[in-house]
What does this fold into?
Amino acid sequence: MALEKTDAVILKSFPYGDTSKIARCYTREYGKISVIAKGVRKSKTLQSGYLEPLNCVEFLFYRNPKRQLQIFSKAEYKYLWRSLKSDIKKITYGFAVVELIDRSVTGEEPHEELFQLLVDVLNAINRCEGNLNLIYWFFVIHLLSLLGFRPHLSHCPRCHGKMESGFFSRVYGELMCKKCYGEAGMSDRISISRHESNSKFDGQGFVVKIRAINILKRLKRANVEKVDQITLNSGDRKEVGGFLNHYLRYHIEGFNQLKSFLVMEKLFTK
Ligand SMILES: [Zn+2]
It folds into this structure.
């Protein structure tokens, strides 16, 4: 068993037995791993605090690739996200981000870009004085791209025609042009853009207007440092947020059950 060092974001942790703690972490070098910190809850060295969700730490652990649970040794902070952890809105968005990573990443497969996206986005949430939605959307669209589920925003994936207003098909999980959407046999059930992000609207799909598509394109190109400066009107939140939520529902299994997503819907969509 070798002593290894890695950067990690803690996704989830829980007590184990009377004195120990188990944490699930997304690491730069080893993908998603679980570690057990034995006896840490009664130790006086404060190492227990490092293994709380939304922490970014560098830690040492004893790694045995044949085991599912690795043995934590010690850690230090990479970032102290004080603002993120003292603001209920930021905490909720932060949890949504780590839950989505937890849900969409399965094994010990390192993914440098995805790890960096996670750290950059949590840093941006910590620093943000503007619109947290924009940072969350930025995360979602880049996460989808890195996982291979990038939505087609410029051209229809079926006929390759230029995308003006698009139609999202809940059957196929993709955005397509009006003609192809019609041909897919769903045009009679279109529920035109009256959806809300938490709606249970009827029909197999909905319109995504060109304005929302342009915002999605800007999010894809934007720098995470400046993404919260994009100006939105009151309809954009529903349009862009609604599209991304439905897209995630289709492509990420179990998205509907994410706790932070349910909290976010209750707190911030009224
Ligand atoms: Zn088409």
Remarks:
- The first strand starts at residue 2 and ends at 16.
- The beta strands are 2-16, 20-27, 31-37, 56-63, 69-79, 166-169, 174-176, 205-208.
